[in-house]
Amino acid sequence: MNSPFVERVADTTLPTPFGTFAMVGYRDADEHEHVALIAPHTPLHDETGESAPLVRLHSECLTGDALGSLRCDCGQQLQAALKVIAGRGSGAVLYLRGHEGRGIGLLEKLKAYTLQDQGVDTVDANLALGHPADARDYRAAAAMLSDLGLPQVTLLSSNPAKEDALRDLGITVAQRSPLFVPEHAENARYLATKRARMAHDVPDHESDVWHELLQGRVSTEISDGVDRELVDIYAPIVDAGSPFVIAQLAQSLDGFIASSTGDANFVSGPQDRQHLHRLRALVDAVIVGAGTVCSDDPQLTVRDAPGVNPVRVVLDPKGRIPQTAKVLNDPAAPTVWVTGGDVEVPPLADHVSHWPIQLTDSHIPAATVVTALSGQGWGRILVEGGGKTVSDFLEAGLLDSLSLTTAPMLIGDGVPGLRFAGNPALAGALRAPVRRFMLGDDLLTQVWFRAIPEGEAPS
User: Fold this and answer.
1) Judgement on whether residues 254 and 387 belong to the same structural domain of the protein
2) What b/e readout covers 333-353, taking b as 16+ CB neighbours within 10 angstroms?
3) Is residue 217 in some structural domain?
4) CATH of the domain at 193
């Protein structure tokens, strides 16, 4: 299917260090050639318009993308976008030719570099050469998205002008997710100009260190305060690589994660809830049991920290979660509904996949789930709840780490947290190195069943 502005010329695949993408080549009416890289589980041709996969519009930059220029952040942005989208397993990167130097061409961009060397900023350099500050045309991008069956997207960009351009061209932008990469001395002025004169998003106070962690790197430029805490808590998780399975629970001093009525709002405080959202941002997939969905109806998205929503996985052996559940209706993230092999499910939204799995003693085998997710490239997994689901993964020996937050309250009776077949003698109790941090009034204990990455000794 071709639009009046682009012709679809070739379909192939492209293996990359981040994963294998479907690759589609286009030629537009101005004879520019473009490509789209599509992750394997992207919901294409969604007639309902409900899915909004993550999409990056990347403007061609020979100096940054191919030559590693430090004058801009383009090469870093391209690598970061490919990594994020491949890790999520859904979404697309559109590589747009003819956008060199914000649309003025390679040689004109080099002339602009000469002016910048004399102290002119990037906007004034383009203007001094008789060009607009930004001459890019997004008609090809909109036509490619339409051809691919992506009329609604989550735009991975810090540039609001891209969002406005797509909307003007008939593409629905459900939301825009900023993409920050670390800055350095050579591109600091360039980034400052984009933010001051072109309305690009400004990172918050923690973004430099946090976004390094999101890209799988630990910043070496660490100050005290928030930056130090971020590195102390999350660097071992980042350094653990993939595959990696971590579980999270928040419980009272007497070991309950909810009251006897199932009320869990809220056991822990706001700092621990932000911690949970940071964990979601650092993994590929988040797992919950059917009981958690039935009682809490969670969104399982990243809202209290910068980052991309993980794939949502619901373990539901009997297929009992309600059709009104947010995970089945909110297209903010791909969702995998895992049931017993004989469970029939109703028609599902395009963002939801059904995985029937053979049960063992009426349970979904945790090891089978981890293997299946890793096979999709989702090797970094967060087991979020409830207590029974976390306990099943712990008892199966699948957890590399446990993030256990204890709140200063006594519930008395309620829904228990960890419960598993222990040893009758305390000498045989499960022990592992721990690290402890205060999150407001709550105590976070990181338990490391796998060796803590080198250089991160337990506290």
Assistant:
1) yes
2) bbbbbbbbeebeeeeeebbbb
3) no
4) 3.40.50.10990
Are 198 and 246 members of one domain?
Answer: no
β-strand partners of 340: 357
Q: What angle do CA 132, 133, 136 make, to 5 degrees?
A: 75
Examine the residue annotation and report whether 304 is marked as an active-site residue of this protein.
no
Query: 45 in a domain, yes or no?
Result: yes
Q: What is the pLDDT of residues 391-431, one digit of tens each?
A: 999 999 999 999 999 999 999 888 888 888 877 888 878 88
Q: What is the 3-state secondary structure (H, E, C) of 150-168?
A: CCEEEEECCCHHHHHHHHH
Active site residue 380: no
Domain shared by 188 and 246, yes or no: no
pTM confidence score: 0.60
Instruction: Give the CA angle between residues 440, 446, 449 to the nearest 5°.
Output: 175
Distance CA 352, CA 340 (A): 16
User: Residue 337 is part of which domain span?
Assistant: 240-448
Q: Tell me the C-alpha distance between 30 and 97, whole Å.
A: 11
pLDDT digits 0-9 by tens, 323-339: 999 999 988 889 999 99
Of 134, 201, 330, 350, catalytic: 134
Q: Is the peptide bond before 319 cis (omega within 30 degrees of 0)?
A: no
Structural tokens at position 246: 């971590």
Among the options 56, 88, 102, 136, which is catalytic? Answer: 136
Same domain, 329 and 419: yes
Instruction: Report the domain count for the chain.
Output: 2
CB–CB of 56/65 below 8 Å?
no
